[in-house]
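Here's a chain:
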Amino acid sequence: MLGRWLPLQQGLLHGNGLARRVLVYVVLFSSAITALITAAELYAGYRRDLRAIDSAFEFVGANYLPSLTNSVWNVDDIQVQSQLDALASLPDVEYIAILEDGQTRWFAGRAVSLRTREMMVPLVRGSGPGGQTIGQLRIVASVDRVLGRVWARLAEVLLANAVKTMLVAGFLLVCFQVLITQHLAKVARFVRGIDLQDPAALLRRLELDRRERGRWRPDILDTVVEATNGLLRSLHEARQRLVLSQAELAESEARLRLGLEAAGAGLWDWDIVHARLYLGPDCLRILGRETSAEAAGPRQHDYAYWEAQIHPDDLAQARSAIRRHFEDSRPEARFTVEMRMRNDLGDWRWMSWRGRLVERDARGAPRRAVGTMADIHQRKQAESAVLEVNRQLEARVRERTQALEQARDEAERASQAKSEFLSRMSHELRTPMNAILGFAQLMNLSNADPTLQRWSAEIEHAGEHLLKLIDELLDLSRIEVGKLQVHLDPVLLAPLLHDAVGIVQAALPRQKVQFDVRPEASLPAVSADPLRLKQILVNLLSNAVKYTPGGGRIVIGAQPLADGRVRVSVTDQGLGIPKDRLDRLFQPFERLGREDTAIEGTGVGLSLSKRLAELMGCEMGVDSVEGRGSTFWIDLLPAAPPVAAPAAVSSDAAPLEPQRGLRVLYVEDNPTNRTLMEAFFQTQPAWRLLLAEDGERGLAAARAESPDAILLDLHLPGIDGYEVLRALRESPQTVDIPVIALTADAKADERERGLLAGFAQYITKPVKFGELAAALDRLAAEMAR
């Protein structure tokens, strides 16, 4: 028993700082908790005693006051004094007295405490408002007595808790030593006794002097033992791997030497601090400096010696490359320098130095670099030969490039000239068409002879056909020169199909065919240019109407395909197309033998539709059976985001009947167009028309007349329409007058440019009087509001 307790006593008293710290922490924590709890209890007792004093005061006021008042009234000294003596015996009451006119008449006890609580109660004879105050009762209670009891209780509690805390701490210290400290000491002795050089020592196992199993096992000591034994196993395995690695390292070094010899390379090591460069035997052999003495190991020279062997033309480049490498702090950084060096024969040979910085000092300055050196003389000679060949080829390429650039410039000039020609032709062709279609519309609006109205309808129909042909030819030409662009947006098909059918029905009212629109429900949105897609559909529907006999049916369908695309198809009951002619169907001006029939057409619409579909990334084709009809289809790509259905807006509505007066200034240099506009305004009696022949006269008329609206042609002599608009916006007299562009420039980019410039609306010629009347009447309505 003594043998077990002696080590325990020594562990408790000597060197067990951890156990002592645990003891100190337990004592401090227990003392803090005890102090807090005791303070709370004592404070609660202190507050309870103070409340007892207040209760005593209330007791005196409620029970003794009437009899005491009666005794004082009767001047019964014996009765008053006996009552005061009885009240002075109450807990913590030190002094009680009756005062008359501020002077003490009777009293009991003596007030000696520094901290007291007092109560003054008047002695009133009688009740109600007529009661008479005959004196005052003063009661003094001692707070010092309460505090004395609190401090006495505190000493008792602290002493008892200190004894309990020390007993618990001592017990914990013994438990800590028995259960933990002695085992940890054995672990430490075992670890200190391990000899890493002794393989047998690495095979030993740590075992503690306690039962192998028990309640709450395994515990932290078991974990320490297991970790220690595992560390020993790992050290043993690592030692075995180290032995194998040393053998593999020796074999690897041999392979490295063989590889360097085969590659014609050698190793070098640069001591930057002492400016010493060590070259291995392979490096010396490459430089032609190998001797029997030198072959045994590396040769060392000052760095300046080896730098002197570098060709003067390559020295600055080599220094710059090494300096950049030293400034690069990335661990993976490498440098490569190709330079000429002199060998023992005095010849210059190309060498490739590769390496990296492997050591820096505490301030980051370079200390050591290692790498390889290889002979690349033959490669550099081959590169020189290749460079000479490349130089000759580059000279020939430059000559060919100059010729191609000249041809390209000529093609671009031709394309620009063609684009300008197309723009000019569009304007020049639309100007006379404006007069033809405009006067035809006026004849239809007039009360002319029915025969004349029928003839004017024919003129208008033919003019619309000619205008469509002009637009298609110009669009086709723009596609060929790459000037026609499409803007892809998410488009919902169902509203667009109904719009296209409505346009065809309005344009071809005499055709007695039925339209059957069958789009599938829940069609996804497609990616397309809505204007160009509608143009394609109108072309396909117009062709279907022309070739379908009266009473026939045209089916317009739309359904999704398996690959995600959406196919829109137009099926007619026409003549069909022979199979041997299908390959010529989409060629310009090709009508497949229908040009000799009474069916009008130019052969441009299908070719243009095919080109527009390709610009939008779509595929267009036809399925036809001769004698049964044809199905033209276009496969559209799906669009990711959903879009809301656009509201259908028709620009071909009949002229509105204006309800408000309006003064309009028309600036136009073409006399025919001015005459046409005068004729149109004669049909609108509520409106008044002012005319100007050019931009300067238009500005003068606008400032003098202050019209309600201005119709402005863009191509005017002198200053053009954009300059006129700018001048109108800069003048305070005309800044608020709405200006509508009325021009033959029908291209989409020109329309966008006009709207961005500030025109209220952009109307193209040939003008549709319904669209113009609607625009002017909206302006009149806005001014009326």
Observations:
- The chain has 18 helices and 22 strands.
- Residues 613 and 619 are 6 Å apart (CA to CA).
